[in-house]
Design goal:
255 residues, Rossmann fold, single chain, 8 strands, alpha/beta
Length: 255
Amino acid sequence: MKPLRVFIITEDDPLYVKRFFEVFLNEYPQDRIDLVGMTISRAFHEPIWKTARRIHRFYGSIDFVRLAARYAIAKVRREGIRRLAAQTGVQLHDTESVNDTAFVERLKTMQIDVLVSVAAPEVFKPPLLRSARLGAVNIHSGRLPKYRGMMPTFWQMRHGESEVVITIHEMAERLDAGGVLATRAFPLKEHDVLDRVITETKREGARAMIQVLRSAAELGSLPHAQPLDMSQASYFRFPDPYSVQAFRTRGHRLL
């Protein structure tokens, strides 16, 4: 049995997405999964000052300063995903855009079986989606199709759900609309902390992704996908201050 050839596209986040890779790179079965490379893009695929303004509006001044301090310390110590990749011997492939024609052609020459998106900040265009033999899969921290879009963990907590549902799904041209390959539920406390929930669901999500990829290696194809009923779909954007206030009124905290 040949190992499944996998390529991962992710974003440069040393606080939360890094938690996914701490587990994934340590636990994935190298005899079943051949991680042939990774691309680490800018968060939100935008200048850092725009990201900072977005995060400040979301967290408010006090939590923003606390989070910025954690981010700065992680950067000074070089505790990001690049360091984890280097420590485990994963080759990095830089590009200005993952939809760039030259980058897509490079992926095709690598004969990838599965392309994996982990918080990838760009929409994957059709040529990129078709660059891997078995297709592309994404991890989404929300039940689909109800919690499509951005910050699904926040929105599930904001709406009083009893659990966050981690979803591994096929990628399609329409965002968060591909068939579901696996789900995993993470229980919420009555009064919880977004920081804790995101951290722990990243770790649980890594193990769910490993399970899906291991199954694909054994089957020679992706596991059977459950189609989504898009008539039940919703789409959420980045939270505004009003939604953050409603989140806090439920007794939840951001940090």
